[in-house]
Amino acid sequence: MISTTISIFGAGRYGQALATSFNKKGLSVCLYARNSKNGLQANIVTTTDLSKACAFSKTWLLTVPTSGIYEILEKVSAKDLPKPSSIIIGTKGLDPKNQSLLDEIVRIFFPQVDVYALSGPGFSSEIHMNLPTALTLAGPTLEKAKTLAKTLSSDTLRLYPSDDVKGVLFGGAFKNVLAIGAGMIEGAKLGENARAAFLTRGFSEMRQLAVALGAKEKTLFGLSGLGDLILTGTSLKLSRNYNYGFHLIQSEGFANTEETVEGLNTLLQTYKLSEKLNLDLPLAKALFNVLNKGVSFEEEMKTLLQRPLPEEE
Questions:
Q1: pTM of the model
Q2: How many angstroms separate the CA atoms of 188 and 182, rounded?
């Protein structure tokens, strides 16, 4: 039986936008927030009561930042709370403790639950305004993903099913790293050519690392990889990660410090992964040197431009 209810844990802009979209489709939605939230439709249940959110539906969607993923999973896995049959990961990032993909964390707390991943080029503000958006929903099997995608899709939010949870999760995470770098390039006024080259070569690094983690390479050419990279790697107006990189280079500081810049943690974790897996990811390494080792942006650009010319992959 297809569930017509969903519980969303995380009442940030993304959680609120998806709550609005699912409610418009006709689903009953419960949005869990640590603090009370206003401004949503009256028929969306918003609560700070964790037990109420857990009991509302057997389908759960996590939209909390990666920094809060362990905290929320520890709370909802308490013995006295109702348990889900499906958990959808809407968070874009890597495990802040050991570089693993977020499905592995979920399975620690809920080993018997079906785990899904939702990702792709979807700015919260446009989803909230019911503007056309397409995302990927990956599940444990393609048939299960198709069933859930049909349930959650609407006339403005299209969810394309996949069975590659790891590929969808990693594409959504690593694109934030590349968006920071693209913002830095614009901030340094290096031109559109440089940004296009950076995103293209960065996409190659995304594919290398994703495959090493067990993802299917073809997934990265879809919405949750290339599609999301195109969106967040080109929008100064709406991309937090791009905005962060731009203002960092402009020496203006980051204006939206209350917002999570997921790419910073993901950069740290992917750098550790590349070292562990002995992968050569020159762009990720350059960004890590600038953001974590104090190497100047100009020096790293010079090093990159003097590298030997490899065959294009």
A1: 0.93
A2: 10
pLDDT tens column, 164-219: 999 999 999 999 999 999 999 999 999 999 999 999 999 999 999 999 999 999 99
Catalytically active residues, by annotation: 175
Which tokens in the block code for residue 155?
A: 């006339």
Q: Are 313 and 204 in contact (CB under 8 A)?
A: yes
Q: Which residue has the tokens 């050419």?
A: 221
Claim to verify: residue 157 and residue 51 sit in the same structural domain: yes
| Residue 285: both structure tokens together | 């390494």
Tokens of 211: 């495959």
* 117 close to 169: Cβ distance less than 8 angstroms: yes
Rounded Cα distance, 111 and 114, in Å? 9
Tell me: do 143 and 273 sit in the same domain: no
CA distance 260 to 20: 21
Among 85, 296, 112, 93, residue whose Cα is nearest residue 177:
93
Last-in-domain residue among 146, 166, 186: 166
The single-letter code of the amino acid at 29 is: V
For 31-35, 92-96, 253-257, 298-302, which range has the lowest pLDDT when averaged over its residues? 253-257
Whether 230 is covered by a domain: the verdict is: yes
pLDDT of residue 300: 93
Encode pLDDT of 11-26 as tens digits.
999 999 999 999 999 9
Residues linked to residue 7 through DSSP beta bridges, in sequence order = 30, 60
